[in-house]
Amino acid sequence: MKRITIKELAERLGLSPSTVSRALAGDRNIRRETRERVSRLAGELGYRPNPVAVNLRSGRSNTVGVIVPEMVTPFAATVIGGIQRVLYGRGLKVIIAQSDENPQTECGNLELMERFMVDGVIACPCDATRNGEIYRRIRQRGVPLVFYDRAPLRVDASRVIVDDFATSYFLMEHLVRRGCRRIVHLGGPAHIPNARERLRGFRYALGKFGFVSDGRSVIPAGVTFDDGRAAADELLRRMPDADGLFAWTDTVAIGAMNRLRELGIRVPAQMAVAGYSGTVLSTIVNPQLTTVEQPLDEMGCRAAELILEKIADPSAPDRTVTLTACIRERASTAR
Known about the structure:
Elements: H1 6-13, H2 17-24, H3 32-45, H4 51-58, E1 63-68, H5 74-89, E2 93-98, H6 103-115, E3 120-123, H7 132-140, E4 145-148, E5 158-162, H8 164-178, E6 183-187, H9 193-208, E7 218-220, H10 225-238, E8 244-247, H11 250-262, E9 272-277, E10 290-293, H12 296-312, E11 320-323, E12 326-328
Parallel strand pairs: 1-2, 1-3, 3-4, 4-5, 5-11, 6-7, 6-8, 8-9, 9-10
Antiparallel strand pairs: 10-12
Helix pairs in contact: 1-2, 5-12, 8-9, 10-11
Pfam family, one: LacI
GO molecular function: DNA-binding transcription factor activity; transcription cis-regulatory region binding
Organism: Alistipes communis
């Protein structure tokens, strides 16, 4: 259906476009009869204001852009739920874009947010080494920016994170107390800060508990269920006597656990399996997955609060909010 424009309304009414625009805005300098004529015809024809034009006139869009790396798992949806609850309560809307773990797509999403003149951007970058220039450009143009979960170190902005290093260490401590002695880490891509910090926590724990860290104990994995399955095959090839597995995300952990069970490896009797994220996925697999549970709804709420602070006062200092994550012990690591 064709969009009705102010120009078309003006032609039908025999008025100038500026008069119609002012009448629609409720300008008291326009006669009441004229305002009523314009309003009546606009309603009959289904006229809707062009949001881009409105943004240009007001300098505000009352929208916040949210960039997520993926929408396959409940992780992003839970964070977005917290963001929306806070922003909707303040009269702001949310535009959501998915990068699909692709830096080029993420760049295009950011450029789209710029064109829509969003009042702020909340982002979980897919690659800490890419797109720094466009993020810095957004900041320089006065658009508030907040990172959550993943935060590139070379871009100044407020951020909401958890302590990936410490929680990974405590998860390893749990596996050791459970009785594991030959633990393997399925690590994430090096360009993701969380993956590096969780690997650092794993290695620190190995040293702390007196275990040898060799080339067999860390197996590169990606971000998908299939990546976890492939990593499980590699694990059994490299270290068939392993008795514990710590995957950098629940997605990879679940993929690996399913593959191990297909191959006849009993979880947890022969191999304890733990992940990191704490989404609902960890509770709907069999056995239920031990994981580091991040406060995802709170993460979204705090990110929204930070963006509101920066919108209200662009000169406000950047802040880092570190949330508390906890270890949920479940059947996948039971003694």
